[in-house]
Amino acid sequence: MPRLQKNDNFIDKTFTVIADIVLKILPTSKDEKRAFCYYRDGMSAQSEGEYAEALENYYEALILEEDPYDRSYILYNIGLIYASNGEHIKALEYYHQALELNFKLPQALNNIAVIYHYQGIKAANQQQSKISKSMFNKAAKYWRQAIYLAPNNYIEAQNWLKTTGRIYNISD
């Protein structure tokens, strides 16, 4: 099961060694340990652009992982892959599932906002002003939530909210 890492650098090797040691000494079930191995292998594959392999590992981890907090990160990473492949609807589904398990995940809120903002720009370019406004308002809603959780992050989003007059809650 362990993935053979192709681009091992010092940090990756160190993380892998430490994770393996911690995994051996932690009082966790066999399934939890296997879930972590799949998750780790998924992250490794994802970082190398091997998205199909990463998804396989994440789906295996989801089968085994019971902890809602840990599941939220698996779901979030699945959403990242779908978003990077341009499958925005699927990405949104996984980001929302992650948030159902862990509402304090500002990066998921930010990524949802990015997708809505992108859709707003597309609609604006196609002269669909009602759809554009709706998408921009949705983006604003999620960016405000992300910024509330991580006030020092998402500076570009904060600037966009200010310059568009969406910094405060308007009719979303």
TrEMBL record:
<feature type="repeat" description="TPR">
    <location>
        <begin position="35"/>
        <end position="68"/>
    </location>
</feature>
<dbReference type="GO" id="GO:0015979">
    <property type="term" value="P:photosynthesis"/>
</dbReference>
<keyword id="KW-0472">Membrane</keyword>
<dbReference type="GO" id="GO:0042651">
    <property type="term" value="C:thylakoid membrane"/>
</dbReference>
<keyword id="KW-0602">Photosynthesis</keyword>
<dbReference type="Pfam" id="PF00515">
    <property type="entry name" value="TPR_1"/>
</dbReference>
<dbReference type="InterPro" id="IPR019734">
    <property type="entry name" value="TPR_rpt"/>
</dbReference>
<protein>
    <recommendedName>
        <fullName>Photosystem I assembly protein Ycf3</fullName>
    </recommendedName>
</protein>
<feature type="repeat" description="TPR">
    <location>
        <begin position="72"/>
        <end position="105"/>
    </location>
</feature>
<feature type="repeat" description="TPR 2">
    <location>
        <begin position="72"/>
        <end position="105"/>
    </location>
</feature>
<keyword id="KW-0802">TPR repeat</keyword>
<keyword id="KW-0934">Plastid</keyword>
<comment type="similarity">
    <text>Belongs to the Ycf3 family.</text>
</comment>
<dbReference type="GO" id="GO:0009536">
    <property type="term" value="C:plastid"/>
</dbReference>
<dbReference type="InterPro" id="IPR011990">
    <property type="entry name" value="TPR-like_helical_dom_sf"/>
</dbReference>
<feature type="repeat" description="TPR 3">
    <location>
        <begin position="120"/>
        <end position="153"/>
    </location>
</feature>
<keyword id="KW-0677">Repeat</keyword>
<keyword id="KW-0793">Thylakoid</keyword>
<feature type="repeat" description="TPR 1">
    <location>
        <begin position="35"/>
        <end position="68"/>
    </location>
</feature>
<comment type="function">
    <text>Seems to be required for the assembly of the photosystem I complex.</text>
</comment>
<dbReference type="InterPro" id="IPR022818">
    <property type="entry name" value="PSI_Ycf3_assembly"/>
</dbReference>
